[in-house]
Design brief:
Layout lengths: L1 E6 L4 H11 L4 E7 L2 H10 L4 E5 L5 H15 L4 E4 L12 H29 L2 E6 L12 H24 L3 E8 L18 H13 L4 E4 L3 H10 L2 H6 L4
Parallel strand pairs: 1-2, 1-4, 2-3, 4-5, 5-6, 6-7
Helix pairs in contact: 1-6, 3-4, 4-5
Bound molecules: NADP nicotinamide-adenine-dinucleotide phosphate.
Length: 242
């Protein structure tokens, strides 16, 4: 029996992955997010597979307790997928908008990562998957905190991978970096190559099964990411859309 927890399962990518995993044999999936009604609707789709816990990741004390509780109800934990995230376009540079991204994508996110790594290290095995973003490779004038928090996440899990390599533990970390996926999170003008949730989630599942370290979804975003990362500063500054 494979035991999976998905944080940020109420919509978009997290929900898509939950639905795909629920089609598998011998699996139990714990769902977490803030919107109770979305969790309950999803759980009703396969009541024998799903367990739910309502939690706001920015409440870090509660988050640790809820993760303990959910993994306990599943009878253990093999795979934790961290899909929760937020971020808005912020032309006014309103601190409240940035603060929300920092609390969710940095404070709550780090608490969940640390909890999972400690859990898997104690257990001696496990797999942590984080959904970061190709956007984290460069700063963004339109949504500065969002891209910066994604850069933090990518850097943080590289550190975790180094820690695990030093300890020679069979605990795996996968950093999934989506381009654009058709969810509420894909905001702004000029979006291109927007993947459906189903296509993106199927590629993510394959990468998770193969226990990849870093993967771009959809696959063509690997090339875009390379170009984006290597664009000369002068050119990149002229592309401002603020
Ligand atoms: N869609 C894209 O184009 C794209 C591109 C690159 C990266 N990503 C990343 O993919 C991940 C999933 O996003 P999505 O595209 O699936 O968008 P989404 O549908 O808006 O999903 C975001 C999820 O995060 C949860 N969440 C947000 N704040 C939370 C909080 N404080 N506590 C607990 N859960 C919280 C939401 O649940 P509740 O609101 O119910 O709490 C929801 O389940 C995010 O990390 C995002 O940055 C998306």
């Amino acid at each position: 029996m494979k035991r999976i927890v998905i944080v940020g399962a109420t919509s978009g990518i997290g929900e898509g992955l939950a639905r795909l995993y629920a089609e598998q044999e011998e699996v139990r999936v714990g769902l977490m997010g803030r919107r109770r009604e979305c969790l309950e609707r999803l759980a009703a789709f396969r009541p024998s597979v799903f367990e739910t816990e309502v939690c706001d990741v920015t409440d870090t004390e509660l988050l640790e307790r809820k993760l303990e509780c959910l993994s306990g109800r599943l009878g253990g934990l093999d795979l934790l997928i961290l899909s929760s995230g937020t971020g808005d376009l912020n032309p006014a540079l309103d601190y409240a908008v940035e603060r929300s991204a920092l609390l969710t994508n940095v404070v709550g996110w780090t608490c969940a990562v640390d909890w999972a790594v400690r859990f898997f290290e104690r257990q001696g095995h496990g797999h942590l998957v984080v959904i970061t973003s190709a956007g984290g490779l460069r700063g963004s004038g339109a949504a500065p905190a969002y891209n910066a928090t994604k850069a933090f996440q990518m850097n943080y899990v590289e550190g975790i991978r180094q820690r695990l390599a030093g300890r020679r533990l069979p605990v795996r970390v996968t950093d999934i970096r989506p381009g654009f996926v058709d969810t509420a999170m894909a905001k702004g003008d000029g979006l291109f190559w927007v993947a459906s949730v189903e296509k993106a989630c199927r590629q993510m599942m394959r990468a998770i099964e193969r226990r990849r370290s870093v993967v771009y979804v959809t696959r063509r975003w690997r090339a875009v990411a390379w170009v984006y990362r290597h664009l000369p500063d002068g050119l990149y500054m002229k592309m401002a859309k603020v």
